[in-house]
Specification:
hydrolase; 17% strand; globular; HAD_sf; Rossmann fold; 6-stranded parallel β-sheet; metal-binding; alpha/beta; two-stranded antiparallel sheet; single chain; 14 helices
Length: 262
Amino acid sequence: MFLISRCFRLSRCLLGFRRGVSEFTPSGHRTLVAIDFDKTIVEQDSYLAVSELLPTRQRKELQDLIPKCGWLSFISRVLQALHGEHKVNSASVGLRVRSLRAVPGMLRVVRRLARNQEVDLCIVSDSNSFFIGEWLQAYSIECLFAGGVFTNPACVQRSGEVLVLPYQEQTDCNLCPSNLCKGSVLEELSCSGRYERVIYVGDSCNDLCAMKRLQEKDVACIRRGFELHEKMAAHGQELACSVHTWRDGHELEELLMPKIVA
């Protein structure tokens, strides 16, 4: 799994930070805070934001393919069209991602969590390493995610086009797309023996898969007013962990800090 972190351009910094925190807290006594990216750290879906660089008609035609082809195929076609037809290079794509607004208060809560020597932060996202890397660099917080960044790997080709590849190829999980099962990522992290407790923060239905892997001692934080929150009446009984809701980073900070220090 950590192969993806090595594909991430900031891996040297991330790995260095991971070595540093391990000196303070023994394995098995740490807390992992796993956070989704789109609509959890940033307000907008990063794939839709980048697609806005296309002409309106072309963008809508590609968006119509999402239910049939999936998000990874969608962004691949968007990036191909941007580079091949409109001569939009990776730098322009990166600038669009860097312009995404953070969820109010989220930068503060991430920085505060990262200061706790008993906490590892990680990102589990169906976005990609190029988009996430650009955004984290823009706010100089790339070194805060000592637990890793688990997402679809991406690279800039010599031509200047951004290429996004699947994190995995899976057929076992119906809640997640074939390219990334968040539940399998979280299960591997949970079973590593490194963490005493896991806190998962997300907003969408593929986050439900990860939350279903949480145990009674763990915590799921679901963003109110978004996809997963609207479906919790039907799925809440499937979770063994504690479940809390949040609206923005300020509310999330008030929710998490007593649990982190408890």
